Amino acid sequence: MDQLQNMNFFVSLVLIFTSAAFTDNILLARFLGMCSCLAISRKVDTSIGLGSAVIFVTASTTALNFLVYKYILLPLGIEYLRLLTFIVIIAAFVQLLEMIIERFSEKLYYTLGIFLPLITVNCAILGIALFMLNKPYTFWQAFAFGAGGGFGWFLAITLIGGIREKTKENELPKGLEGPAITLIIIGIMALAFVGFSGMIKI
Amino acid sequence: MIPGSILFSIGISVGFLLITGLILALLLILAEKKILNYGTCCIDVNEGEKKLQVPGGGSLLSSLAENEIFIPSACGGRGTCAYCKVQVTEGGSMISPVEEPYLGPEERKNQVRLSCQVKVRKDIKIRVPKELLSVRKYKGKLLHKRPLTYDIVELRIELLEPKTIDFVAGHYVQLESEEYDGNDRVMRAYSMSSPPSDKNHIELMIRKVPNGICTTWVFEHLKEGQEVTFSGPHGKFHLSNTDAEIIFIAGGSGMAPIWGILRDIKEKGNTRKATYFFGALTQKDLFFVDELTKLQQEVPWFKFIPALSNEPANSDWKGERGLITDVVARHMPDCSKNEGYLCGSPGMIDACIKVLTKAGMTEDRIFYDKFA
Amino acid sequence: MKLSPEDQRLIHNLKPSKFSKEGFLGTDNRSFEEITTEDLRTLEKTGVPKKLLVQALRDAYQKARNTFGAEVEIKKNVKAVFHESMGRIPSPFCKDGLFEKGEVVVIDSANNLSLVITSLGINLIEKHDFFQGKGCRFRIDPLVAIKIFRLLPET
Fold this sequence. Notes:
The complex is a heterotrimer.
Chain A: H1 2-6, H2 9-23, H3 34-40, H4 44-76, H5 82-104, H6 106-111, H7 123-132, H8 139-167, H9 179-194
Helix pairs in contact in A: 2-8, 4-5, 4-7, 4-8, 5-7, 7-8, 8-9
Chain B: H1 4-35, E1 40-45, E2 50-55, H2 60-66, E3 85-90, H3 105-109, E4 112-114, E5 124-127, E6 136-147, E7 152-161, E8 172-176, E9 187-191, E10 201-207, H4 213-220, E11 227-234, E12 246-251, H5 255-267, E13 274-280, H6 289-298, E14 302-308, E15 320-321, H7 324-331, E16 339-343, H8 346-358, E17 366-368
Parallel strand pairs in B: 1-5, 12-13, 12-16, 13-14, 14-15, 16-17
Antiparallel strand pairs in B: 1-2, 3-4, 3-5, 6-7, 6-11, 7-10, 8-9, 8-11
Helix pairs in contact in B: 7-8
Chain C: H1 5-14, H2 32-46, H3 50-65, E1 72-75, E2 78-83, E3 88-90, E4 98-100, E5 103-108, E6 113-117, H4 119-128, H5 142-148
Antiparallel strand pairs in C: 1-2, 2-5, 3-4, 5-6
Helix pairs in contact in C: 3-4
């Protein structure tokens, strides 16, 4: 941990981002955000849409929650309320974001906005915000952690979407169709992602 | 006895959550008021012909409907029927993914949009066909429902509110069905078969469609004396201003606009020659034969040719036999000077266009309403 | 389970609506995905290419449509009648646009089978492998269609 603080500011950001995206992939290593992943990953383009919305929301809510935790919850001595607080903040933020996007950019609304209601209560987003507390991050590091986590989720769902598009035509035993085979795919991909785990340790 | 410190921390957590919740709720309410408030927007119809002040944020279709401009729509604004197309020349913003599939390149160039998918967010300029501005919602009372054949009925409706309607013979109205057996209210188009001079009534001919939402309602639920609602008049199907000889081709309930046109031109002292080919399967599908034959005897300009395609060979039918298209081709070898008016199913219209063009009629002289 | 906006729309459109009195799923309580994969598999097992089936449906539809309601013979003992209807119906897959209403009822008196073919129904099979749910009046069961149009040599 000490080395993290001594490191060059930007290098530390890049390292945190990559480790959150690859070694500690929220979907493949922690198995969070599975519900929306199973449901939406049928096609690559919807996967990309939902994934981008997740990147955006995790990055901003992690930063927001960092501030709330550090400047409100800690001073008041009520850290144990972090779970509840984070949930409401994320939900309210997503709602607000949807309104802002709808008002100011139609283009963004049609590509990202329509996915926002789906991730109001996505556990990956809450998970990233809570894991962020385990490390002594600064504000920008927390932001990089959130963005990296979101990117990891994006990457995973897009890959799964690609594989599912390819395997759609294949004949499967009846019991394995749909979510079942997707879970197996995710399992195999998780094994592959274990290969990253030795790369960065922070 | 609970220790004070515990009470204190319970108090602080409850208070904190309460306050956070309240603040966030307030923030969202404020945001909704501020961010999603577009103020009052102005809809300019046909270059200043009408200017409407509407609260922003709603769809163009519903904003227009609130101001008594009824764009035809069947799906009620879900973006699935694509009937509600209008030209938005200014302030229409981006084409939404819902609209994409319905707009061809030509329409995109002309800035055509689905009015149910366009949100009024700022001042907006639109162009609609002039006739649409005179479309009204009507309430009426069903005077009678009489069967014309085993599967076609005639409805006669007295207008209650407004009491009169101005239309051109050949146009149609959108009849609104009521809810029944879990079916939603739907709007379906039916041509008026009454002459425009009868301003307090309209007549419709409706054929029963198996599984049809609106026709099932008309046949099984609609009673004489009941109140009905419809909007209109719509349509582009009417006689041209030329004096070219007319060929009418219609079968079944497709007779409606033609029966209206015939009665209209008779009243107006028409001299233009007209021939009406009535295609049907067997004798039990024929109706109004007496009325049409009588008209043929009364006026010199009208000829009525019913033709049956499926009549048993040994029956007492003395008229024409064969597909309506073949009968037309037999009687009208040269159509280059005529005008064709068609009403019927898309399949019949396609086939008739083929026959008429083959006999020398150019496509700009063939008129029809495909109700699409 | 959460659904993408596109899927939500599809599920909504497949139910009875302002356009389709009975919806597209009939009494089938399987999901859209299950229906398509199962029917495709059934079709695959028979060895009849989907293209051939679609072509047979389209030919029958056109042949009947061209006579405006008179009975036509498709094959020996197989008759088809076109029932006209004005107007158009939008596809539940919004991207496909509108289709003419009107249906062709095919009756195979030799096997005591029948089918209702619509232009929308043909499109649903061709583009989306969707033969419609069991119990739906417009379902084109692959096995029934193959039998009616004699797409397999009789054994």
